Amino acid sequence: MTSKNVLVAGAGIAGLTTAYWLKKHGFTPTVVERATEIRDGGYKVDIRGAAVDVIRRMGLLDEVRRRATEVREATFVDRTGRKVAEMDADLFGGRSGADVEILRGDLARLLFDQLDGVEFGFGDSIVDIQPDGTVRFEHTPARKFDLVVGADGLRSATRRMVFGEGDVRELGYYVSIFTVPNHLGLDRAERTYVEPGRTALMYSTRGAADAKAMFLFAAPPMDYDRRDTEQQRAILAEAYAGAGWEVPRLIEAAKSADGFYFDSLSLVELDRWSRGRVVLTGDAAYCASPASGQGTSLALVGAYVLAGELASSDDPATAFARYEQEMRGFVTANQKLGPANVRGMVIAKRWQIRAQLAVLRMLPHLPGKERMAGRIAARIHRAATAITLKDY
C-alpha cells in the first residue's frame, strides 16, 4: 500500500496500539492527543482472551504481568462496613486462564515506551478533515495525511466530524472514578457497597499508596457540560445523598481528587467504521461501556486487526472492509456484555440486593463451587475469544 502517512487521533490504548502496529508494518504514524501528556495511573482494566494474544505478539506479556494489579479479594459490606460476603477477585471480575488485570495508565505508559521515533502532538486536537486528507489542528499548522485513524474514545471528535451525531446509545447509568487516600488500609483488596439504584466501591492495587473510588448509579440521560468537573462532582454528590458506608467521605474526597472521571455508560453503534480516508477503532468505533469489562481488549484487538489489514491490502478501502469483516462478530459479542453486566452491578430493588448477597455468601461453601464459578466466567470468556487472530 502506498498510503503510508497515517494520523492517529488519540493516545489512549487504542491509539497507542494502532501506532505500534502501524510502525511495525512500515507505516509512518503521527499521534495527536488533546491531553498534554500520557495519562498515568487511572482505573483497573482487564486484558482477556484474544487481547492477551495481541500483547503476547507485541512481546509485552511478561511486562504486563509484572504490572498486574494483584487484587486478591472482593468483599461486600453493609452500610456500617460489616462484611456480608467475600469472594476471589478473579472470580468476581470474570477472569480465567491467562487473563490479567492492570491499571489503564500503566498499560498506556508501557505502550508509549515502545514508540520511540513516533511523532506525538500533545496538547492539540483535530478541528477539520478534508476529503483530500488535509487536516486542520487547533494549535498547529494544517498537514496532509494519507489516512486518519480516529481512536479518540467514546466522545470521539473524529467520529462526529465524519459521521455526525446520534451514534451513542446511553444505557441509563453513570460512572465516576477517581483517586482517594487509602484510609481503609486496603491491601490489594476491593470493598463494594450496594444500595437500590447505586453502587460504590473502593479498591487498592499492588504497590499503590492511595486507592481508587468508583461509583455506578442509575439515572435518566442528563444534560451537563462534559468539561465542567465541578458540575459533575455536584451531580455525583446529589446522586449519593444519604448513602451509607464510606460514601460521604469518598464524595467529600471527590472535591479535590486527582484524575476525576465522570460519564454515562454508553454503547457506540455504527453500521460502518470508515468513510473515505478516515477509519475508527476502539471506543470511537464500538465502545462497549466499562460495564462490559472488555473496552481495553476491544481496543487492543481492533488496533492489531486494523493495522494488519492495512499492511496486507492493496488499498485502504479494501483494508477497511476486511477490518470490519474480521471485527464485527467480536464487537457484537462483547457489546452484549455491558447491558447484561450492569444489571448485576447496579440493582434496582432492596430484596434483589439481599438475594444476590445471599448467593455470594453461600457460593464459597457450596459443593461444585468451581464448576459454578466457571459458568460465571464462561460468558465473558466466550466473548473475549470470539475472534481468531490472523497472522499479518
TrEMBL record:
The record's Pfam families line, in alphabetical order, gives:
FAD_binding_3
* Domain FAD-binding residues, every copy: 5-326
**MF terms per GO, please?**
FAD binding
Supply the SUPFAM superfamilies for this chain.
FAD/NAD(P)-binding domain (SSF51905)
Domain of life according to the entry = Bacteria
What name does this protein carry? 2-polyprenyl-6-methoxyphenol hydroxylase-like FAD-dependent oxidoreductase
* Organism annotation: Actinocrispum wychmicini
